[in-house]
Amino acid sequence: MTKHLIQVINPNTNVAMTHTIAQAARSVAAPSSEIIAVCPTQGVESIEGHFDEAIAAIGVLEQIKRGKEQGVSGHVIACFGDPGLLAARELANGPVIGIAEAAMHAATMVATRFSIVTTLPRTVIIARHLLRQYGFEHHCAALHAIDLPVLALEDGTGLAQMKVRERCIQAMKEDNSGAIVLGCGGMANLARELTAELGIPVIDGVTAAVKMVESLIALGLGTSKYGDLAYPNKKPLSGCFDMLS
User: Fold this and answer.
1) What is the b/e burial string over 171-204, where b = at least 16 CB atoms within 10 angstroms of the residue's CB?
2) Cα distance between residue 180 and residue 114, in whole Å
3) CA 12, 17, 21: angle at the middle one, nearest 5?
4) Residue 239, Cβ neighbours under 10 Å: how many?
5) Three-class SS of residue 91?
6) CA distance linking residue 26 with residue 89, whole number of Å
7) Nearest residue to 141 via CA among 165, 93, 107, 189
8) How far apart are CA 147 and CA 119, in angstroms?
9) Residue 143: which H helix or E strand, with range?
10) pLDDT 10s per residue in the chain (245 long)?
């Protein structure tokens, strides 16, 4: 059996969260897939705003370049802001899927309306921008924040996980949504249990993205190199950006 390497990139530098994301990705990966979970060694420990995303995007591009050199067949960007997604597609040969993009697509396939549960109120705004960008704004009934930082998902207290559960129950009851999207890669290990408890699809973008990448690979489809996603124009890169040459 031919093994396909799928690179799952956690764009923040948090190794524990990368492990959580890797476990979720491997739990759904096909026998023909090998998950390579990575994160940058420099950047931000968590991604909670536009500034963080701008910094994280450079780490994403560096990992995409390394993945290509390793011969990976596809890539997942495991942050709900999908930082650097289009730039990553310019660099990549294989498919590149962001977890917000994947989760929103999946939600529309199993429900007519979905809600999003994310971390901080400011990331609600960023998620709303993505809904508009991806064309899913009219499918989303509401967005909810647990009002805790991303790293609370890895602090070992269980408080963040409890609040995610409470918000999901609230979203199901108040929004009349048929599905719920979890708006953070660090929530990847919660979806299956919440789906069983609530009785509606609770969708994690990491696992959804892995299956979408696998499907595109099986179809023989990579990122188009015609038009705006063609490889970047060759030009000198200086300073710390030389690593992307």
Assistant:
1) bbeebebbbbbbbbbbbbbbbeebbeebebbbbb
2) 5
3) 100
4) 6
5) helix
6) 23
7) 107
8) 6
9) strand 140-145
10) 788 999 999 999 999 999 999 999 999 999 999 999 999 999 999 999 999 999 999 999 999 999 999 999 999 999 999 999 999 999 999 999 999 999 999 999 999 999 999 999 999 999 999 999 999 999 999 999 999 999 999 999 999 999 999 999 999 999 999 999 999 999 999 999 999 999 999 999 999 999 999 999 999 999 999 999 999 999 999 988 888 98
38: phi then psi, degrees, rounded to nearest 5: -140, 160
As a whole number of angstroms, the distance between CA 222 and CA 164 comes to 35
Distant-in-sequence, close-in-space partners of 50: CB < 8 Å, separation ≥ 6? 126
Pair 116, 101: CB distance under 8 Å: no
User: How far is it, in rounded angstroms, from Cα 93 to Cα 125?
Assistant: 31
Q: How far, in Å, CA of 166 to CA of 160, rounded?
A: 10
Q: What's the rounded Cα separation, in Å, for the pair 204 and 104?
A: 10
79 to 91, 137, 163, 182: CA distances (angstroms):
18, 19, 20, 11
Cα angle value 97/100/103 (rounded, 5°): 90
First vs last Cα of the chain: how many Å apart?
34
Query: Which residues contact residue 23 at a Cβ distance below 8 angstroms, ignoring those fewer than 6 apart?
Result: 188, 189
pTM over 0.85: yes
